Amino acid sequence: MYYYIIMKNFKYFLALIIVTIAFSGYSTAAEAPNYDELYYNAQLFDTEFMHDVDPYQDQEYMKYTWSPYPLFRTSSTLYFKSLTIEPGYYLLTPRNLKDKDYVLFKDNGKVKFIVPVVKKTITDVGFYQYQVPKPKLTKSKTIAQNLQKCFFKNKRDSGRMPPPDSYIDVLEEGNYVIIKFYYSNSCYWLLFRKNKF
What we know:
Number of helices: 6
Order of helices and strands: HHHHEEEEEEEHHEEE
Strand content: 25-35%
Mean pLDDT: 80
Distance between the termini: 70 Å
Number of strands: 10
Strand order of the largest sheet: 1-4-5-6
Largest sheet: 4 strands, antiparallel
Helix content: 25-40%
């Protein structure tokens, strides 16, 4: 009986094994990018914004309840070719300029740096729910949050949307600092050097 079932579905088992082996080999090859090659192939943006103001900023801020972009703090100096990013707080804003992806580093509403994206990937489904750590709330904040949800659930909606999900992950690999900037359903990889040559 079991022999008959196995032989009847043998081609499906074989196809499943082949697909599993093919995808497992593909994922291990994709996990180890050549950072030297990515760094040297990335090109800086060749023009500047007028008065260092992002022209799309006002349109986007009107749609959301608060700033749709995350605040990033660096405590060390980062180098990308001729750019030197000093320690401080920056709003990271992804942009597609001249058919290439860049991330704008904004300080006090002004664009300070335009950094090219060396790699762009799609964020896994459920990444923000399962991989991003949740903020720890005190008991009083938890109670206040639950009361707010209870009493203000029928309040009038302003029509503005909550900002897209975002997360920033910083990794070190040899002389490189990799910033993985997750925004909505995309992940933007930024590559910096620790030391300027």
